[in-house]
Amino acid sequence: MKKFTLSLKLFLIPAFCLILCAFSDSDSIDEYVGYLQKSFTDHYDFSQESNQIKRYELNVTNNGFCRYKRYFNNGKTEYFAFKLAKFKDMDYYGTTESGKLYLHTKGDDVIVQTYKDKGGDVDSMATQVIIPLKNMEAEDLNKIRENLNKINPQTP
């Protein structure tokens, strides 16, 4: 009986440790989302659009969505949203002082809604969201890409 108990302990302890390691996550999605929200908020460049835009909302949510809403001076509203798991790649065009971040999705995964436009309210799909940013160093962009890739389980 003692041999059986010893064998059982030798089997169960490593199995229990393996189970704990499998379900532990050193970094959580909340940390990645928090970093993205802080980066987008800190580096958003309102001056690139201030002559057209009255205000904006840019949110990265804990349930994995990026939402960007722009309110124009003429009353028009544009809304962009995509699930972060659909992130494919990103490009940055500009300088370290000012530029635009293009977040590309795997397909037509960006929801685009326009309200109070001259042509009427429009719902469509797109493949990218463009966010004006300022004071972006290469390290900042690499960290944004890294966090987006960690949220996206299909990206290596």
TrEMBL record:
It comes from the Bacteria. The keyword Signal applies. Residues 1-24 form the signal peptide. The keyword Signal applies. Keywords: Signal. This is Lipoprotein. It comes from Pedobacter fastidiosus.
